[in-house]
Each structure stands twice: as C-alpha cells, then as structure tokens.
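*** Backbone structure tokens ***
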Amino acid sequence: MRKLLLLDADVIIDLHALDLFEKVSRSYNICLTRNVFEEARYYKKVGAKIAIDIKDVSIIEDIDLESLRKVKREAKESRLGIDPGESTSIAYLIQAEEEITFCTCD
C-alpha cells in the first residue's frame, strides 16, 4: 500500500467533514507527524463539533532536527507563515528516502 503523508491537520479535518477519511485510509497507508496528529482534534458538521478519533495511521516521530531547522529558516527567509505540523511534515519529506505521496490544503 502506498504511503500518503497528510501535511496539515486541515486535511484531516476536511476529510472527516466530507466523510472521506475512512475511504482514503482504505486506499493508502496514512502517515502523520506527531504535531499534525495532535492538531486534528475535531471537525464541524451541521453546526456541531465532532471529536476526531484517528486510528490505523502511522505516526512519524523521528524528524531530523537539521531538516526541521532548514524548513523553518527557508520559511522565514521567504516570509511564509508555517505551523509546527506543516514544518515537521515538510522536514520529514526532505529526509525521507522512500517514495511518499503527500496532501495539503490550500
């Protein structure tokens, strides 16, 4: 099964709101950095807050500090706002040796 790295909590939130998270998780091995996992707490549907209970995903813990520093430095130089989930996810993409498909929200 192909790896799918979700770069930001917004992707998880939107997939849950659209009732698509389960479908995507059957097609891909979903990977999240610890920051993204912790940021995705709930989604809204029909005005109600619904808690997100993410199961059967791979949590990435081993982010190379030099890759993370590089991401933060380049974001700062480009004057881009980047949250911890996005930072750790992009750092993981830099250091990863295997082929990974990734997804983010705009």
